[in-house]
Each structure stands twice: as structure tokens, then as C-alpha cells.
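queue> holo job accepted (4'-deoxy-4'-aminopyridoxal-5'-phosphate)
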Amino acid sequence: MTAPRILHEGFAGVIGNTPLVHLRRIESGTGCTLLAKAEFMNPGGSVKDRAALAIIRDAERRGDLHPGGTVVEGTAGNTGIGLAHLCNALGYRCVIFIPANQSREKIDLLRTLGAEVRPVPAVPYNNPDNYVHQSRRYAASLANAVWANQFDNPANREGHYTTTGPEIWRQTEGNLDAFTCAVGTGGTLAGVSLYLKEKNPAIRCVLADPSGSALLSYIKQGEPQPTGPASITEGIGNSRVTANLAGAPIDDAIRIEDTEVVHTVYRLLREEGLFVGSSSGVNVAAALTLAHELGPGHTIVTLLCDGGGRYYSRLYNPDWLREKGLSTS
Ligand code: PMP
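queue> job finished
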């Protein structure tokens, strides 16, 4: 008897190869084709599954991580979720440092997934007790352990250079004029842009930035300078240029205000049936802005980074939105 052919090897085997969704109603009136990678369909629910896998595989290749080892990160978000799933699947211990002011749901979810969560005082980055520094020191104190270091570990963007970029190129058969997405670590935008520009330097690569972030000014003027009030978006925007973003071939940046984010997220839900988080709203709003800038006949690709289920208490809570003066229409 022949063994059945295993098409996908466990959790890690179903990360990536996400569908490219045609946003037919969102694009209407622009004369452009708008396409979005459904990253919320990754098994851990977000684009960050790719970074988590790339970082773990890189540590294994370097010989820093062996069976039974520990993966440590300071994160309150999707990277921690991806790491927690992968550590279960690959036989590692997962330790997540998180600022103590993060929501109960986030801490509970990470613990449910099997991570050891260590809440630490919420202090600024320049304080040595900041959660990022604590996670780095803890990893360094252990044998057979890796500090994921998603912001400055280039394995993150390499993961997008070897998977997300080639998938977009194959799925569009090279017929695309522009790519845009928001930046948290920069792994996605940098990795995809590096790959696409190698294939065709004319593809326009554009950073989509929420209010309050310093990256728009970095791209436009060469200096990171926070501008505008803090945004309601989560997981994106940055006050500094990470190692993952540095040197990426970015042509331009677009600011997307919160009113536009919320409007676009609810359009995605009501017109396309897609229930997604705030960074997806930034991305699709930026793709629409690009469509108007480039004019009819162009194809623009972006990402839907995670699902809406993680945002019930904020983005999908009408009372919370009203308090912020934001409207869903
Ligand atoms: N969207 C969401 C929901 C995220 O969690 C993140 C990562 N923080 C991003 C977008 C940005 O991705 P990257 O870190 O690759 O820049």
C-alpha cells in the first residue's frame, strides 16, 4: 500500500500560498484592478505567521535552536500568536513578554495557545525594563533559545522576499503596476518590494502610513518624524526605521487618516463580505488612492493582514467608534 501524499506538512505547511482576492466592488469607478492577498487565511490568522515561520527556520539553520528549545519575543500582537502556534507544532517552548497594560483578551489568547506570557510594566523603549529589552535579555540568558527580534531580524523580510513576493508575481503573472502596504516591522513591504523590483523595476512600491507614524516623513524627506495624532490602527506605523525597512526600494508614501481607515474597513465588510482588521483598511484605502493617482488601466496589489475577530472591542464596537468621533458610513 502506498502512503497517501501529504500535501501540507502540519501548521507550518499551511502558512502562505494565500489567495489573491479581486476587490471588484471596491475598485468600481477607478478603471483599475485592485487585488488583495488574503493573509487572514493563514492558519494563525495573520500575515505574521510568515514572519514567525521565517524567523524560526532561520534560527534552526544557524544552529541557534534545537529540539526542545525556546523562542522568546516581546510582542502584544499577531507575531506572538504565530509563534505560539508554531512552537506547539514544532516542539519549542514559547515565552512572550508583553506590556501589562495590554488587553486581557490578548494575554488570555496567548496563554490559551500555550505561550508562557510574562506581563511587565508598560515603560518606554528607552527604559531598560521595556518589554522588548526584557525579552532580549531573557533569551540571552538561556541555552538553546532564540530572541525572535521581529523588528530588526532580517529573517523577517527574507521570509516575505522568498514567499509573499514570488506568490504575488506568480498570481498576477507579472501583470501589476503597483504594490502598497502599511509597515509595522517593515518585513512585508521591504521583502515584497525587493522581490518585485528585481522582477520589474517599474513596479511602483508605496508605503501606506497611518496618522501619528514617522515613516511617511522618512520616505518623503529622509527623516523619520511623527506627524498627526495617534491612530486607532494596531500593529502598524512606527517611530523609527527598523533594520527590516532600511534600504528597501520604496518609491513613495501615502498617509491614510483614521476616518478613511474605518470607512474602508466597513466597505470591505458590506461590499465585499470581507471581515478584516484596521491595517487592511489602511492598505485598501492606499490602493484606492494609488488607483486615482495612476489612472485607469492599472493593476494594484495589497494585503488583507488579519481578520476582524481580533477587534470586537474597538474597530467593531459602535460605542467605541462613536467616542472616537468615527463613523462606519
Ligand atoms: N497588519 C497587522 C495586523 C500586523 O499585525 C502587522 C505586524 N505588526 C502588520 C500589518 C505590519 O506588517 P510588518 O510587520 O511586516 O510590517
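queue> The first strand starts at residue 20 and ends at 22.
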